[in-house]
Amino acid sequence: MDKALAVQSVRSGRQLSSTLGTSRAYHSNMGHARLAHSHSGFNSGTPFDYEAFYQQELEAKRKDRSYRYFNNINRLAKDFPCAHMAAPEDKRVTVWCSNDYLGMSKNPHVLQKMHETLDTYGAGAGGTRNISGHNQHAVKLEETLARLHRKEAALVFSSCYVANDATLATLGSKLPGCVILSDSSNHASMIQGIRHSGARKMIFRHNDLVDLEAKLASLPLHVPKIIAFESVYSMCGSVGPIKQICDLADKYGAMTFLDEVHAVGLYGPHGAGVAEHLDYETHAKGITTEKTIMDRVDIITGTLGKAYGCVGGYIAGSAKMVDTIRSLAPGFIFTTSLPPATMAGAQVSVEYQMSHNGDRRLQQLHTRATKAALQAIGIPIIPNPSHIIPVLVGNAELAKRASDILLNDWGVYVQAINYPTVAVGEERLRITPTPGHVNEYRQHLVTALDAVWTELGIRRTEGWAAQGGFLGVGQDHKGNEPLWTDAQLGLEVLAPEGSIGLNHSGYSFEMEHMEVARAVPAQ
Fold first, then answer.
1. How far apart are CA 105 and CA 103, in angstroms?
2. CA–CA distance from 394 to each of 32, 326, 423, 427, 428 (Å)?
3. Which architecture, in CATH terms, is 106-355?
4. Does the N terminus or the C terminus of the chain have fewer Cβ atoms within 10 A?
5. How do residues 251-302 score in pLDDT, each as one tens digit?
């Protein structure tokens, strides 16, 4: 019996190894063997001091200013972007760094659907998708996401971190001799997935098409290749050259893997992301006979936890590719399904944004106005064409102090971004306006940043320019025009020169704010 069990265990281990890409059973057996061997003699060494090790690691993080401090911020659904601190009676603050880009976490249609689903189906899914966790809410959500991106199928994960990790790890390990070409600024989830794949990797300079093509050209045409990149890079706001990368992929026989996490909901006539936005008119008219840039992208990944205000991540692509990931990816197979209420709410959120573009237009207007107001007082914004407003500080300690003063003295919450999220010397504050950040909040933010920059003596734009510029600050902003054009935003009313609230396009922000708000149906 024992021998039979041992054989069964080895067979099970081999099966798991095939699915997981690792040999968990083998590692377990080897571990038992090492333990048995160590028992053969007396170990006179001193036991490892685990707590001292933890302390050493934490001290190193504090010393290099990369230790992460969490602020107890409790966002208020009825008053977003406002929040209170640790206790409800604590002072109110305005949140300026949330990824709830459109405020959909408080959308009444989403909340109502989640309440109804929660009452009917309970709090949890009850298991993995394979074992009792598959339901109508998952089916409807995936059908909606596939339709959003004009793909054959979609697959929902617990987060897009998991979606990126699991998909790249699975494809990279299964495609024979696969090489993954990764943008140097890719998110940690993609980097981790590439590492887990065990595939050969080639890192190309950020958004550098010449470098990417040189690396592609060095590989035989028959070798499977994946180009992994993002549409909007969240810490600098730069936008990937999607069309040109698709051209290179066609030329050299590569697949494209596009992360649209910080773009879905925010760009395109239906909120499908930058790839949709690049063919705005075609998608707005619903033309299906033309092959668009979005159609050319092989795999699109996105999140339900940012512009859609819920939680979860997904991939969209061909039916066979999605089924392969569904069948082979441990990150999908062995984790509990998202709760029914979460998936139902996310599905309503995606559908809502597919039908209404008022929220993202307001978000773009607020972004333009905030950038213009900060630039007018020399606050150093790293130039980019997206909705991200990265404010360059260039010093970890100063960034943390600026964030603390803004929160404690001004009631403005903007998180400091330090290493390893950004490189040392590139520390910054990351500001993300939403439709709820109206003129009153914006003016307070500008006043607060102006005061804090003066108090701490932080370098302004002219200071960076005097040193030749850095990261685009104090340099030519050519090529960083907003992705959303004036025509796409429907900006037709121009204000007289010198009007209060003008942004760089010359229109009255408040007038357009009201005009776009009227375009959003009453909720």
1. 5
2. 50, 43, 10, 5, 6
3. 3-Layer(aba) Sandwich (3.40)
4. N
5. 999 999 999 999 999 999 999 999 999 999 999 999 889 999 999 999 999 9
Tell me the domain boundaries of the chain.
Answer: 62-95+357-519, 106-355
Q: Which of 163, 158, 83, 100 minimizes the C-alpha distance to 349? A: 100
CA 421/CA 187 separation, integer angstroms:
9
Lowest mean pLDDT among 20-34, 290-304, 473-487: 20-34
**411, 257 in Cβ contact below 8 A?**
no
Nearest to 259 by CA among 312, 320, 199, 313: 313
Strand 179-183 relative to strand 200-204, pairing: parallel
Tell which residue, 150, 167, 134, has the closest CA to residue 324: 167
In whole angstroms, what is the distance from residue 498 CA to residue 503 CA? 10
Place of tokens 């500008």: 446
pTM equals: 0.87
Q: How far apart are CA 327 and CA 248, in angstroms?
A: 30
With pLDDT > 90 as the criterion, what percentage of the chain qualifies? 81
Buried b (16+ CB within 10 A) or exposed e, 208-246: eeebbbebbeebeeeebbbbbbbbbbbbbbbbbbbeebb
CB 4 within 8 A of CB 156: no
Element (H, E) at 200: strand 200-204
Is 1.10.3720.10 the CATH number for 62-95+357-519? no
- 434 DSSP assignment: -
Q: How would you classify residue 122: left for phi > 0, otherwise alpha for psi between -120 and 50, otherwise beta?
A: left
Cα angle value 486/490/491 (rounded, 5°): 60
Longest dimension (CA), the chain: 90
**Measured CA distances, 304 to 92, 261, 350 (Å):** 27, 8, 8
Helices assigned H by DSSP within 381-422: 396-410
Selection from 270, 277, 330, 325 nearest residue 301 by Cα: 325
Residue 392, strand partner residues:
428
Reply yes or no on whether 306 is catalytic: yes
Report residue 355 as tokens.
Answer: 């039908």
Tokens 């699915």 belong to which residue?
19
Catalytic-labelled residue, pool 106, 215, 225, 306 = 306
